[in-house]
Amino acid sequence: MGNAIQWIDRRFPLSTFIKHELTDYPTPRNLTSWWNFGFLAGFMLVVQIISGVFLAMHYKPDSQLAFDSVEHIMRSVNYGWLIRYMHSTGASAFFAIIYIHMARSLYYTCFRPPRELMWWSGQVLLLLLMATAFMGYLLPWGQMSFWGAQVITNLFRATPYFGDQIVIWLRGDFSIGDATLNRFFVLHFLFPFVIFGGVFVHLVALHYIKSSNPLGIELDKEDKIPFHPYFTIKDLYGLGLFLIVFCAFVFFKPDMFIEPANNIPANPMKTPPHIVPEWYFLPFYAILRSIPDLVGGVVAMGASVLIFAALPYLDRSTIPAGAHYRPVYRVMFLVFVLDVLALGYVGAQPPSDEMLLYGRLASLLYFAMFFLLPSISIREDRWLRKRGLPKAVEAFIEAEQAEIERQKAARRRRRGAA
Amino acid sequence: MIRLLLCLMVLHWGAALAIEEHELKDLKLDMSPASLKQGVETVNNVCRGCHDLKFISFASLEGIGLTTQEIDDLRGDAKPADRLMSYVPAEARHATYGVVPPDLSLMARAREGGARYIYTLLTSFHTDAEGKLDNTLFPGVRMPDILGYAGANAEERRAIEDQVTHVAAFLEWASDPNAEKRHHIGWYVLGYLAVLSFLLYKVKKRVWSRLGAMHTSGF
Q1: Is B81 within 8 Å of chain A by CB?
Q2: Distance of residue B110 Cα from the nearest chain A Cα, in angstroms
Q3: Could you list the residue range(s) of the whole structural domain that residue A121 is in?
Q4: Which residues share a beta bridge with B51?
Q5: Is ipTM over 0.85?
Q6: Residues A100-151: pLDDT tens digits?
Q7: Which of B30, B29, B39, B28 is nearest to B66 (CA)?
Q8: Does A12 map to a domain?
Q9: Given CB 3.0 to 4.6 Å as the disulfide criterion, which of A67, A256, A270, A288 pairs with A297?
């Protein structure tokens, strides 16, 4: 064994790699469970790729066969139902994890320098994930698959000059059809591997600048612990808890994430009464619908996803600690989360005057949070500086000092006793 | 903060659930073999007059506990591998109703409310003031009141409701024949994961205890 590793090490930096990225990789010891979700997202990507590859062995990307081939998987393939439900529930789980991962970064302002590239690579990954999920949703070829894709591809009509041509180019036909299904299948298979590469970049950046932590300040060397075994075991424990929730859905409520209308084969002649996207697109869908003009709606929806990238420049506070020590920012964060949930609710409702009003108010609030952030964060910063360090920070520093002294005394006592 | 987020999630969920299922009748699904057997008999003798069940083969009815003899009685001249297609060709049905009546294999999943929708639809036929047949749940439905619910008296209606309960149960089974197996495996999976997570928690505790008492909970 030792010889084999030596043989490899002379040709490939295996031991150095493991040492650098795992056994010696310094991690802040104060990471809370919210730091578990990056690992969980990586885990879900692997689950989706593996279950997806097995589904692709039985699935037929043909408008005449697709719907029946999914039922073939559900009924005739050995444990096909399990693979399919893992994949369909997995999409929702993936988004839930990514949104929590993003909320964590927002709350602790992990987008601040020097983590801009982490934040932006994450933004690109989010866009890729959304595209992959959207194309994957067409594959079961149910009513909601078909009409959802019809509505969303139609949005590209908003492109200046080439709108109509671009829509046809995307669909490969004048309407969603066999050509669209086939190309969406190919791209849905390809994109996860692009995401995999993107995750690699995200991780290289992470291991270069190291993890953020709830305090937002760079910790001393003594306050960092090796990733392995401390965070490998913590992440695995978190994975266990996550899998309990995930499997509860997969085995007992898998149809919760499949619209009833998607159990009806796609019918281009019959529009379903109420077209809704999957839950993870609802807030953005609500923003799209709150603007009566097609171009305006598309621009607003695109901006609502892309505006996150501007955060490193919008947040002007000099206090590094994130929302925990910034009372105003904390309120803004909570209002934002509430607002996104409200938008999600509005997005799920059939259009009505009342819902349109709520949707517009919530959309306005959504963007207001971003546009007000520069001036609010500057004022908050000034106020906090004038008031002195937050009490919690002071208390924490004192408690930490006392603890270190106590441990030192205990060590001295132990040495004395020995 | 975690508590607040959880509260928000629950509220959100409640609001989302309140959207549908306002006008459906209550239904207590009886998934026992006896009930499913009665259900498949009605489906075979009545529903198949117009509807296909293209994902259900006669042989697969073993899944609801039918014996080979019972399956043979049901299928008549058809082969065991044959699907439960309608007795009437699609063209003829299209000529009668203007559309081909929908396939029933996935019906319990293809409507908001599932089996309750099926039960409510079949027990919502009535004759309006002008003596015209209609359906409260689906006004203008092209499907005839094949079980004669509208013209039945109270006692006959109870018998029909009973019959429809079994049909709804069978279609619920047909929409996902692996559901029972899935639940069965699910309990083992959850049990295994609970034990695994508990052990991982213990190991985590032990590994982290090497670091001394400096706790992280105050952050």
Answers
A1: no
A2: 4
A3: 24-275
A4: none
A5: yes
A6: 999 999 999 999 888 999 999 999 999 999 999 999 999 999 999 999 999 9
A7: B39
A8: no
A9: A288
